[in-house]
Each structure stands twice: as structure tokens, then as C-alpha cells.
Amino acid sequence: MLTKGKSRRSETGKRYKNMRPKKAYEKARTPSLTAIQGKRVQVVRKRGGDLKFRVLSCDVVNLFDKKTKKFAKAKIKTVADNPANQHYVRRNIITKGAIVETDKGKARITSRPGQDGTVNAVLVQ
Predict the structure, then answer these.
(1) Where are the alpha helices (DSSP H) in the chain?
(2) How far is CA 102 from each of CA 32, 99, 112, 122, rounded to the nearest angstrom?
(3) If pLDDT is split at 50, 70 and 90, which confidence band does 47 have?
(4) Taking a C-beta distance cutoff of 8 angstroms, is the pair 62, 86 a contact?
(5) What domains are defined for the chain?
(6) What is d(CA 125, CA 117) in angstroms, rounded to the nearest whole number?
(7) Are 100 and 86 in contact (CB under 8 A)?
(8) For 26, which of 2, 5, 41, 90 could close a Cys bridge (C-beta 3.0–4.6 Å)?
(9) Quick count: other Cβ atoms within 10 Å of Cβ 30?
(10) Binning pLDDT at 50, 70 and 90, where does residue 1 land?
(11) What whole-number distance in Å separates Cα of residue 116 and Cα of residue 122?
């Protein structure tokens, strides 16, 4: 089980003794790595019974234009820049802060697709 807790082994490979078992609340999940395709959302149960909606892929963004103060839907063409990881650009992976090319211009992603369940962006001139 992948966890956020302390490893059972040291850097050299020595096993730590008296380690308690890994707890379910320490569970770490693999990142969603939101791609540009048709919309696919995964529902994940959080601690306490709440739900988290992870966007696995999406090709439409809710775009906010600062000049007109209006929202509009825009089609995502490609990822232009991603400060989270330079390799996400060529793989077209969307994260918060990524710059995407849309049919209405470049936009910066403001939501967290792997956490929120939506892809929101602000138009960048």
C-alpha cells in the first residue's frame, strides 16, 4: 500500500524495528494527470465519507475573461507551459497554473483538476 507515512526501511536498506502497521488514513493515491480528451471524471471517497471528483481527462475549459467579466466555454487545443513539470507540456497534462492554448487564446488554469472536478481558467493576454 502506497502511504505518506515513514518508510519501513532506511536509505541504506536497514529495516526499522517496532514499526506499527500502515493506517488507511495515511493512504497516498496516484496523481490524476489530467489529459486533453473527452471528459472523464473519477469519484473518490475521502476520509469522513465526503466525495472528491478527479478529472482524468477534459477537452473543454470554463474560461473567464477579465475585460468583459464574463465566463465562456472554450475548447482546449494544447498545453503551452506547465510550471509544475516541464515534461507535462509534451504529454499535454493539465495542472493548476498550467498555460493552455484555447480557441479564444491562451489561458492559465486556476482550479485543481485532480481535486475539484472542474477545469477553470483565466484568459491571459
Answers:
(1) 87-91, 113-116
(2) 22, 10, 18, 11
(3) confident
(4) no
(5) 40-123 (3.10.290.70)
(6) 26
(7) no
(8) 5
(9) 7
(10) low
(11) 16
